[in-house]
Write a structure and sequence with these properties.
Length: 284
């Protein structure tokens, strides 16, 4: 019995594996054409000042509206793009689009773009970013680049040069998903991060409590000493907003404020806020 069961299980496993692989291959092939076919678009999620409730920045998040598969989430296709190398072309397109959109916003609003490690290590990466800024007419100081700790697993000169070169031009760097990876304070010590984004697992879910609160407080304390902004990710309720604000986070992002929205809605959020002087959501 055990043998038969084992075999059946193996076969079942193989079928799922194959289906997974087929889907990945499909995604890989189609991703190459998706840009030309106009299936990709950039959405923007507000990052809000927890003191005033006003929008300080938007994070650019890529969306793929596939003609047959429907809306694909970046968690599904970004890893495929990374493995196949398409991420370099895709990433350049995302940065260019985000910079063009941000150039239309008021001057004190910045845009944050996520970068994959592979994109950063590609030859001419820094130049590509600077070109996108120049073409869009967006000052370097209005661009933030979000990187995760996975970037530093491989210790590369290319990474250090990229960060140094762009920082010197005024581009700011944010450490994304802080607390989920290696969370080495060494990265914060070695690189000029202006912002730390505390992962949403510290804000909601099974691991939230006295301990997570103490950790956020400690990170916020460090942030204020080192003049770094601390962003709390994944804020869905007013209670969570108040908790991270009390803990010392200066900025917040999450469904409580808004989901990621198309560019015209981002512009609308900004103009409404500026015309009325009233933020769309309360922070206290
Ligand atoms: P991330 O950079 O940490 O982005 C935040 C993710 O959390 C986004 O998911 C956002 O929609 C989601 N989120 C925001 N607020 C809330 C909330 O209140 N509750 C919950 N449950 N989720 C919230 P999204 O857009 O699906 O992106 C997932 C990840 O894919 C991103 O995580 C980022 O690592 C990657 N990604 C997205 N766009 C890009 C891109 O243009 N380039 C690269 N390289 N990676 C990207
Ligand atoms: Mg991010
Ligand atoms: Mg994040
Ligand atoms: Mg993430």
């Amino acid at each position: 019995h055990a043998k038969i069961g084992g075999r059946a299980q193996t076969r079942f496993f193989d079928v799922t594996m194959t289906r997974d692989l087929v889907r990945r291959r499909e995604i890989e092939d189609e991703l190459r054409q998706a840009i030309q076919r106009d299936e990709l678009s950039i959405f923007f999620q507000p990052i809000v000042d927890l003191e005033t409730g006003r929008i300080r920045s938007f994070e650019a998040l890529v969306r793929w509206f596939h003609p047959e598969k429907g809306e694909l989430r970046p968690d599904e296709f970004i890893p495929v793009a990374e493995e196949s190398g398409v991420i370099v072309t895709l990433g350049n397109w995302i940065t260019a689009q985000a910079a063009r959109t941000a150039a239309q916003w008021p001057e004190d609003v910045t845009v944050a773009v996520n970068l994959s490690p592979l994109q950063i290590r590609a030859p001419g990466a820094a130049l590509g970013i600077l070109n996108a800024l120049r073409e869009a007419g967006l000052p370097a100081s209005r661009l933030e680049l979000e990187v995760t700790e996975s970037l530093f697993i491989e210790d590369s000169d290319a990474t250090a040069l990229f960060i140094e070169e762009l920082s010197a031009k005024g581009v700011r760097f944010a450490l994304d998903d802080f607390g989920t990876g290696y969370s080495s304070l060494g990265y914060i010590n070695s690189y000029p991060f202006k912002k730390i984004k505390v992962d949403r697992s510290f804000v909601s879910g099974p691991n939230v409590g006295l301990k997570s609160d103490a950790i956020i407080r400690a990170v916020a304390e460090m942030g204020s000493t080192l003049e770094m902004e601390i962003v709390a990710e994944g804020l869905e309720t007013i209670e969570q907003v108040q908790a991270v604000r009390d803990a010392g986070c200066t900025l917040g992002q999450g469904y409580y404020f808004s989901r990621a929205v198309p560019d015209y809605l981002a512009a609308m959020l900004l103009s409404r806020e500026r015309e009325t002087g009233i933020p769309s959501r309360k922070t206290a």
